[in-house]
Amino acid sequence: MTIQVLNGPNLGRLGLREPEKYGTTTYAQLVELLEATGRDLGVEVQVRQTDDEAEMLGWVHAAADAGDPVVLNPAAWSHTSIALRDALAQLTAGLVEVHITNIHQREEFRHHSYVSAVADGVIAGFGVLGYVLALQWIAQR
User: Fold this and answer.
1) Is 61 an active-site residue?
2) For the chain, does the N or the C end have fewer beta carbons within 10 angstroms?
3) Catalytic: 112?
4) How far apart are CA 22 and CA 101, in angstroms?
5) Which SUPFAM superfamilies does the entry mention (predicted)?
6) How many CB atoms neighbour CB 56 within 10 A?
7) What count of other Cβ atoms lies within 10 Å of the Cβ of residue 98?
8) Is residue 86 part of an annotated ligand binding site?
């Protein structure tokens, strides 16, 4: 099984962007953590990040075509992208939405996620541990 871990805009800046909110783990460290977690779980993990919504849509379409489960941190697209929500609705394997912060404790515009309606589960507010929890859930499914 290959689990696609897809990250949206600004997540490549982890460790640099607002560390008081998002922590000091860098994106490179996150990738290492997720690849190690995949090895421990006996699954392949492909981790990618983009600031380009069209590229993200292509990755989601490819995951849908391959039948791959997805762990997704849609970042700001959670609150704005109906196109991403519609692409995710095509997935036939598991989808877990992950947010490093608790979006419900943040600005009001962040409280709604278009992605949540098509996700099997949502993990928010546990920092980068949320990704590990999502991988564990998918691997045990």
Assistant:
1) no
2) C
3) no
4) 7
5) Type II 3-dehydroquinate dehydratase
6) 26
7) 25
8) yes
Take residue 108 and report the two structure tokens written for it.
């009001």
- Which amino acid appears at position 21 of this protein? K
Tens-digit pLDDT profile for residues 94-130? 999 999 998 887 878 787 899 999 999 999 999 999 9
3-state secondary structure the chain: CEEEEEECCCHHHCCCCCHHHHCCCCHHHHHHHHHHHHHHHCCEEEEEECCCHHHHHHHHHHHHHHCCCEEEECHHHHHCCHHHHHHHCCCCCCEEEEECCCHHHCCHHHCCCCCHHHCCEEEECCCCHHHHHHHHHHHHC
- Give Cα 83 distance to the centre of its chain: 16
* Segment 28-78, tens digit of pLDDT: 999 999 999 999 999 999 999 999 999 999 999 999 999 999 999 999 999
Q: Of 101, 140, 100, 94, which Cα lies nearest the Cα of 118?
A: 94
Does this model's pTM top 0.85? My answer is: yes
51 is in an annotated binding site: no
Q: Is 100 one of the annotated binding-site residues?
A: yes
